[in-house]
Design brief:
Strand 2 and strand 3 form a beta hairpin. The protein has two helices and 28 strands. The longest helix is centred in the C-terminal third of the chain and has 6 residues. It is mainly β. The chain has a nine-stranded antiparallel beta sheet with strand order 11-12-13-14-28-24-23-18-21. A six-stranded antiparallel beta sheet has the order 17-26-25-22-19-20, with no helix packed on it. It has a five-stranded antiparallel beta sheet with strand order 1-2-3-4-5, with no helix packed on it. The chain is globular, with a radius of gyration of 19 Å.
Amino acid sequence: MQIRVVKYGHQNHHDLCEITMTNDIGMQVKILNYGATLEDVVLPTMTGPRSVILSLNSPEDYVKERNFLGGTVGRVVGRIRNGLWQLGSQKVQLPLNEGNNHIHGGIGTDMKVYSFQTKYGENTVETKFTLVDPDGENGYPGNLKIEVNYRLDNRNCIWYSISAITDKVTIFNPTNHVYFCLDGPDQTVEHASLQINSDTYLPLDKESLPFMGCKPVQGTVFDFRTPIPIGQVLRTADPEIVAEHGLNHPYILTGRQPAVILIAADSKVSMIMTTQSPAVVVYTANHFNHQGVASNIGRYNGVALEAQCPPMESSDLTPIILMPGEAFRTWTNWSFEFE
């Protein structure tokens, strides 16, 4: 197993580095200390190397424009209605950076440069990233120390974990925003098959926020309890699919593992996802349009499977409150099978 570190830039007195971890089978995982970002995953298939996540053309591109590709997004991923968190009589107003709402933590943790340390284990290689997000950053209370860990093993599994501690009552709900494209980045995911271990999802209002609680997936286009091609859902006339231009929906997980299975259209690659998180938000790259720094990416070129606490309807954010002295930890594993 190997680890290779290459410096590609410098920002705010920190080196920008690309870390490549390779297992004994030849699977490569590339990560950046900018945003604790999963930059690329390359599988040594029988037909040659295959990239199975969406990436920009070069590491240097990630600092040019926020894109969320593989980033560790926080402090709170997704939207907070009116940017407001209320705890008893105390109100915390977060910056409104998407219309009336706060989204993806403002200038979030996916836009910060982390320190890092690499480590060799028995049949594993890993990289640990560390960031201290200061009190008041983006309006969030508390100095928050975050550790993000990527570990690759010889079973072609990536173990991803986030841990954190705070010195003030705060809110924290991060995720990795990687987009999977098991048929390669030049294909859409419409013919890939998706299965989610979920019986309920959260319908969305016009601001892409939950508004009516959970709804059973049975009898709806949102039913992925058995594997179906993603395009079968994208092509429906369901009003929510039309309004979002695709999937952008939270699924409440049953707790049975695996949480998600994704299978390439050619059936030669599959990804099995397990997670500690209670929900997964499925987003089909609806906004990409081959423009800007992500000019190599178009609509439906990938699917994000964001493990997290589900977004909430109101300013009561109790499920994602982190108390001083309380240890936050969550994990997600992506295991790949290929031929």
